[in-house]
Amino acid sequence: MDITNLLKEFNGAITITDKAGVITYMNDKSIKTFMDDGGEKLLGQNVLDCHPEPSRSKLAELMNKEITNVYTIEKNGKKKLVYQSPLYENGNYKGFIELTLEIPFEMPHFVRG
Length: 113
Hints:
The chain is α+β, with helices and mostly antiparallel strands.
């Protein structure tokens, strides 16, 4: 099973960089989401070059310190959950992933014990 084929059509934007910040993977939703910024042409570009300040410095810090960052945004009438996290292989830092999912403005929340 090839995981990249499974993620290609996943209905959430997946963007992956190497540890230097170079974009190495974008699924279809990510390419569509960032179409105005170049879409598929962003592959091979440094993700830091795609962000203005202060976002650029924040992302650089997350990548350098290998920190997970989670938040929500509202853009174009849609609410999204953004999950940014370091990626590891056999315990070695390999890069960073950003997963963006559209979520309802109101949604159930469950506390489980």
